[in-house]
Amino acid sequence: MKDDNYAVLRILDFRNFVIARFLAVVGIQIQAVVVGWQVFDKTGDPLALGLVGLFEIIPSISVALFAGHLADRKDRKKIVLICYTVLFLCSIALLFLSGSILDLPNNDVYPIYGVIFISGIARGFLHPSLSAFMAQLVPKHLYPNSSAWNSISWQVAAVCGPALGGLLYGFEGAKLAYSVDAFLLLGAILFYGRILPKPIPEKKQGESIFDSLFTGFKFVFSNQVMLAAMSLDMFAVLFGGAVALLPVFAKEVLQVGPEGLGILRASPAFGASLMAMLLAYKPPKENSGIILLVAVAGFGLCMILFGLSSYFYLSIFLLALSGVFDSVSVVLRSTIMQTFTPENMRGRVASVNSIFIGSSNELGAFESGLTAKFMGTIPSVLFGGTMTLLIVSFIALKAPLLRKLNFKDGEHDPNK
Predict the structure, then answer these.
(1) pLDDT digit string (tens) for 298-313?
(2) d(Cα 300, Cα 404) in Å, to the nearest integer?
(3) Spatial distance between the Cα atoms of 98 and 175, rounded to a whole number of angstroms
(4) CA 319, CA 271: separation in Å to the nearest integer?
(5) Would residue 201 count as lying in a domain?
(6) Range of the domain at 179
(7) Is 205 domain-assigned?
(8) Per the domain annotation, does 416 fall within a domain?
């Protein structure tokens, strides 16, 4: 029987979920572009860009374990709605900070850091519930299909958001950009509110809060495939990501202004969205582990070449190609998480994953800013890409079960 690639989209709750997430991601990406440009424009310091990531990741990681525990004990839908509401209020706060009355003086970016810190708390609680709730919306045999369509939604939003943010900021300023950001997050709240509530998973009797908090870590570290897949994401993007430095490349290397920054920020997601569409029709079920390793290595190589490029259009192409490789990695890692995780542990395992992802993105932003401060912008990107290739080689040698991973015909567990 031929696979129905649109089956998951016929589920009303999943459609509302995807639309809500699309709107939220567009808003968050608009905010990221504007905050990045504002901070660098006011300070001229690449380390200040790294601090944006640090002020977001510290609260996010701090609450992650409790957020996972909460996601497996409380109504996941309500948790997500509360988190989206906090992010909406953060957008309103940034709008007021950029208004004529509260406009920040030069070099004063700490109020922006404060808002980002609060949004980091909300995003720390958001990811475990969001990830666990999605798995409740579709039957298990549609997990690869739902992962692909969810990735498409995220990647298309990540194309539209930065491009729109750069254009809005470049032509109309921060106030309109933050207004659109807030409007989109409000739309996400409305669509997410239409999803029917799902049952709260049964909790293990007699389990203490302390044991519950660390159950996700114990499960992940006992599963070689999940640990290797998460480690690839954490360490590869920790060193290989250059997104935090794009304002520097846009202003000083490529000299294309905030409009060009929006295009650069959108390029990885553009390539990723095209690949995600292809994966929705033909998911990588054969030799899945090998494909994952090759994809992350390809991402690292793209970062090295991007660091060497001084041509705007070549840089766009290389960032888009990095998104192609990253999309393969995202879909495979999402499928691994959904397939290997028991229902009553999805929140806690997702919280562990959020720590890995947060470490790779926000700590990666701090690492990029720090290395750029002391090594220079281009050498820091070359260093990061090289480290990514070395990490892929190490994990390929140390995780044989990942190399043997196959999702074909349900043969997803190499331990069997």
Answers:
(1) 988 988 898 888 888 9
(2) 22
(3) 6
(4) 8
(5) no
(6) 7-195+211-410
(7) no
(8) no
Burial 87-113 (b: 16+ CB within 10 A, else e): bbbbbbbbbebbeeeeeeeeeebeebb
Contact 154, 25 (CB under 8 A): yes
Which residue, chain included where needed, has tokens 């750069």? 166
Neighbours of 12 (CB within 10 A): 12
Confidence of residue 330 (pLDDT cuts 50, 70, 90): confident
Query: Which residues does 221 contact at the CB level (< 8 Å), separation at least 6?
Result: 227
Q: Which residues contact 184 (CB under 8 A, 6 or more apart)?
A: 23, 24, 26, 27, 30
Q: Could you give the 3-state DSSP secondary structure of residue 205?
A: coil
Q: What's the CA gap between 271 and 190, in Å, rounded? A: 29
Residue 292 lies in a domain: yes
- Angle of the 110-137 helix axis to the 46-71 helix axis, nearest 10: 40
Name the domain count of the chain: 1
Q: Is 184 helix (H, G, I), strand (E, B) or coil?
A: helix
What is the rounded distance in angstroms from the CA atom of residue 145 to the CA atom of residue 149?
6
**Alpha-carbon span 360 to 354, nearest angstrom:** 10
pLDDT in tens, 23-76: 999 998 888 888 887 887 777 777 777 677 778 878 887 887 788 878 878 888
CATH code, domain carrying 366: 1.20.1250.20
pTM: 0.69
Label residue 216 exposed, middle or buried (CB < 10 Å: 0-12, 13-18, 19+).
Answer: buried
The CA distance from 203 to 168, in Å, is: 47
Instruction: Tell me how far apart the alpha carbons of residues 59 and 163 are, in angstroms, rounded to a whole number.
Output: 28
170 burial (CB, 10 Å; 0-12 / 13-18 / 19+) is: middle
Report which DSSP code applies to 201. Answer: P
